[in-house]
Amino acid sequence: MPQSTLPVVIVGAGTAGISAAAELAETGIHSIVIDEAPRIGGAVFRGPFREAIELPHLDNKLRKKISNIRQLYQDNQPHIQLMLETRVLGPSGDNALLVRHKDDVFEVPYEQLIIATGCHERSIPFDGWQLPGIMLLGGVQLQLKSGLVKPGQKIAIVGTGPLLPLVACQLHKAGVHVVGVYEAGKFSGFAKESRAFLNRPLLTLEGMGLLSYLKAHAIPIHYGWGIVSAKGQDSLNNITVAQYNEDWYPIQDTETDIEVDSLAVGYGFVSRNQLAQLMDIEHDICSFSGLKPQVNEWQMSNQANIYIAGDSVGILGGEGAMMEGRIAALAIAQEIKILSSTAVKKKASKYFNLLNKVKLFRAGFDRVGRRREGLLSLLKPDTLVCRCENVTRADIDKVINQGVKDITSLKMRTRVGMGDCQGKTCNSYCQDRLRQELDTLDVGYVKPRFPLDPIPFSALSEGV
Amino acid sequence: MPTLSEKKYDIVIAGGGVIGAACAYFLSKEKNLNIALVDLKKPGNASRASAGGLWAIGESVGLGCGVIFFKRISMQRAEAEGDDLPPLRPHILPDCFFEFALKSNNMYPALWQELKDKHDVDFKFEKTGLKYIMYDKYDKLYADSIVEQIPDLADQISWLSAEELAKDEPYINADAIGALEFKCDHQVNPYRLNEAYLEAARQNGVELFLQTEVTDIEKQGNRITGVNTSSGTLHCDMLINAAGSWAAELSKMACGVEIPVYPVKGQIILSEKLPKVLKGCISTTDCYIAQKDNGEVLIGSTTEEKGFDTTNTLPELKELANGAMRCLPILNDMNIKRCWSGLRPGTPDELPILGEMEGVEGYLNACGHFRTGILTSAITGKLINDLYRGLPLDLDITPFKHARFDEQNKKQA
């Protein structure tokens, strides 16, 4: 059983976690970094799980970023204790986490904790969304980047945000026929945000590069369009897309059928902050990324020794995560008196600068891609919302008509969110739906339960 | 529709857990009263956390979570007095509680039918029995002394030999030497029961103020006149305190007196969904085990006085898990899906607090149901309705009135 007296524990070896560990290491502070995956880098920069001679679909920039984060870890490795393939189950007492590595369940004590647990994809249920061949966009990208498999032969991409054109290019380079990208945001909306995008001119240029690649290879982008439904016998054969109106309701006479064998759905991400919630950290309700843990400008939560950085505290992407991780690390360095407040301020100022630019840049996409209520209209009465517990839209309609006003009552009456996934899939729809019905942001939330992932009974056997 | 400030309710029920919901249902059956129910879901709500056992005899003789409660008390005493652990003796509740629990238990088959037929809600009543599993002669002694003390209930008891137990419950540890079964002890789905009462009450015209917090109580002299909530003021002639573990806070607001109700934490483990591995509900001296209607196996429960803390703690979970694995070895190969904690509304004598409060008009207690709120919700709802309407009561509630604490205090003085 790994035991350590290291003072700082970081949950998540993604961009935020590794950046925090590196910044700590640079000031001579040791840390333990815990991650569920077998490699560092997080979902975005984990890279292939197996070696391959050629990775034509991974562009040079991505390869460079993957190797950068590995290098960052290598350079600081003497100060970092990695615990890979280790899942955090929840808090244990006041200053420890309970974790599981293979069949061992044990405590990892901490003095200071950085939660950098990233995000997960927002699942948007629509008629047919469960057919084999339909995947969330990030999942498709992971299949390419880490699994080195093609999701299908002929694919359409629906959703909103900067990931759509990027994955379209990667799919095309991997030899998949991309029939089109259906971006729910209007082109005029993106045009209006050009000032926001200029906060990160290089990223914007990269984005333009992607768009011209798509143009050169005759892959169309349809702005203001989105998914309506999907059909197929045993797996996906056919999707219907349509132009969306202002509120993202499909405009009926624009509905178009397309034959595909796979579909990538990317209507955004949700902060993955179940651990923060389980640790009783104060949260704000945020219509964009679900619940948002409250942190101050140094990423410190309402509990003075717990910091939260990266997408788990609000979706900003890799660069923002890097800065937030480093800022949290500096705050800890000052807290344990390794660095003076002057030194910390000096080091942090460039991070704050970049972070602010990233926030302004990202806000542009958030405004154009803000979810509109039309997305809630894509379900038929028998469309499943919660697949752990087989709860349909009609089941939810029924209890809302009975006067249910909060997510807990919805859960008690229908069992949504009571399955193994603890509501990661259905919660977004249920929250949005209640908000729409009740015209209020506060509909309560499903408190995550310990353990965050199922554990074998045998892991709790006496003597373990 | 009148605005809130003009409307006046006959009754406002504070608390939408199983007790408040049962009161709302029974009071609304005749549909001739204006009733509002106010509820805010707080972490630790006991009805949601419950196992859903209708263990009328089991709980009265201290099985179910009672046995674990008693074990802990015995250990604490032994530790405090420095003695060796005294032999575990059954912790039997007074006769008035037996009557209360058994009368309530008898109501469920008809209530289940009634709610299904009239209101299309199903709280999953299952006839299971409750088996106390014995591993050794000490467990047998414990069972013997239970049986000795309840001669009137002999017809509800049966002894199972090791062979009979193995035949009836093939997944139970083959080392068990037999079981004592309480034939009338069954189970429901606890949150479905809670929601069934609420939905039936709503269909009967009760106005539900969900997601709504009680902030203060309005009074004129010693009479309750209204309830201030986060959704506005609800004027009323009668307030029913069904606030579970939060009942003391409410009685303080309403009556100026904190009734002795305090949270008693219970941790619970839930397995993933399994095929049917148990016919009946199970109690050992380590834990109780019940397989619920959807296949999940529920294991309870600790008894801890930790205020409103609802965290899960590893040593306690290990104790429960090991007790369950010993009894039901197949769990060794299964997963724990969830753990949680509930806050039972405990009282010093383990009896509920029902009825009026000395010197306060327009107020009734329906609280302090400790570990048996699901089981005794039906009789509580009926008693509160009969009390409100001045009807003859099914049983004497003197032992459950708040005044008993004053008398105890006087005696002690």
From TrEMBL, chain A:
Entry-linked InterPro entries: BFD-like_2Fe2S-bd_dom, BFD-like_2Fe2S-bd_dom_sf, FAD/NAD-bd_sf, FAD/NAD-binding_dom, Metab_Enz_Cyan_OpOx_G3PDH, Opine_Oxase_asu/HCN_bsu
Keywords in alphabetical order: Oxidoreductase
Gene3D superfamilies xrefs: BFD-like [2Fe-2S]-binding domain (1.10.10.1100), FAD/NAD(P)-binding domain (3.50.50.60)
Residue ranges of every copy of the FAD/NAD(P)-binding domain listed in the record: 8-319
BFD-like [2Fe-2S]-binding domain residues: 384-428
Oxidoreductase keyword on record: yes
This protein's record includes keyword Cytoplasm: no
PANTHER family: ANAEROBIC GLYCEROL-3-PHOSPHATE DEHYDROGENASE SUBUNIT B (PTHR42949)
Protein name (database record): NAD(P)/FAD-dependent oxidoreductase
Automatic annotation (TrEMBL), chain B:
Taxonomy, superkingdom: Bacteria
SUPFAM superfamilies (UniProt xref): FAD-linked reductases, C-terminal domain, FAD/NAD(P)-binding domain
Protein's UniProt name: FAD-dependent oxidoreductase
Keyword ATP-binding in record: no
Keyword Disulfide bond part of the UniProt annotation: no
Boundaries of every FAD dependent oxidoreductase domain copy: 10-387
Regions that span the bilayer: 9-28, 48-70
PROSITE patterns with a match to the protein in the record: PROKAR_LIPOPROTEIN
Pfam families: DAO (PF01266)
Keywords: Membrane, Oxidoreductase, Transmembrane, Transmembrane helix
